Amino acid sequence: MIDKPLTGRAVLMIFVGAFGVIIAVNLVLAYQAVRTFPGLEVQNSYVASQTFDADRRAQQALGWDVTADLAGGVLTLDISGPGGRPAAVETLAAMIGRPTDQIDDQDLVLTRTRTGFTAPVTLAPGKWHLRLNATATDGTAFQQRLTLFVKG
Q1: pLDDT tens for residues 2-60?
Q2: What integer pLDDT is reported at residue 38 of this predicted model?
Q3: Looking at residues 60-78, what average pLDDT do you find?
Q4: What are phi and psi for residue 56, nearest 5 degrees?
Q5: 73 is in which domain, residue-wise?
Q6: Does the pLDDT value for residue 127 go beyond 90?
Q7: For the chain, what is the domain count?
Q8: CATH number at residue 146
Q9: Sign of dihedral through CA atoms 68, 71, 76, 82?
Q10: Residue 61 and residue 103: Cα distance in Å, rounded?
Q11: How does residue 1 score in pLDDT terms, banded at 50, 70 and 90?
């Protein structure tokens, strides 16, 4: 092995190389983060905040409890009201997707059952968010997000 002295040029190359790798990795991670996540929950957060508390109180007054179960490619939603009776749901829209991107988002085709709703769905293993938008028969809006874990 030849012992060469550590010159200023060599130190500069090591310094530039190390920081070049760090900067390149950060740029790739930032690009992937921006590319895969829209970052928007609502179009205008100020407008949405103006009725948030009143909407939340109205939704809580419904007393609805939602449970979701996935078995055999069928998602079952049970929506119960006060006393465990089936809730008075006028309309229901549901969308399921990954928490980090919109590529796998699916609008569900729901079929009403005696106690709730069912929908056929095929999900890969991992974490999924189920977003529900419903309306009660009295016109009260109901929104809920449930987390599902699909085992691989």
Answers
A1: 788 889 999 999 999 999 999 999 999 999 888 777 666 777 888 888 989 999 999 99
A2: 65
A3: 92
A4: -65, -45
A5: 53-150
A6: yes
A7: 1
A8: 2.60.40.1220
A9: negative
A10: 35
A11: low
Residue 67 is assigned to a structural domain of this protein:
yes
d(CA 55, CA 4): 73
The structure tokens listed for 138 are 């009295």
Q: Is residue 16 part of a domain?
A: no
Q: State whether residue 129 is helix, strand or coil.
A: strand
On whether the CB atoms of residues 74 and 121 are closer than 8 A, the answer is yes
16, amino acid identity = V
- CA-to-CA dists, residue 137 to 15, 59, 65, 140, angstroms: 67, 13, 16, 7
Residue that has been written with the tokens 């909407």 in this structure: 55
Q: Where are the alpha helices (DSSP H) in 6-126?
A: 8-36, 45-49, 52-62
Q: Output the pTM of the full model.
A: 0.69
Q: How far is CA 58 from the centre of its chain?
A: 24
| Residue 93 amino acid letter | A
Exposure string (b/e) for 53-68, b if CB count within 10 Å is 16 or more? eeeeebbeebebebeb
Rounded mean pLDDT of 122-143? 93
| Domain assignment of residue 41, yes or no | no
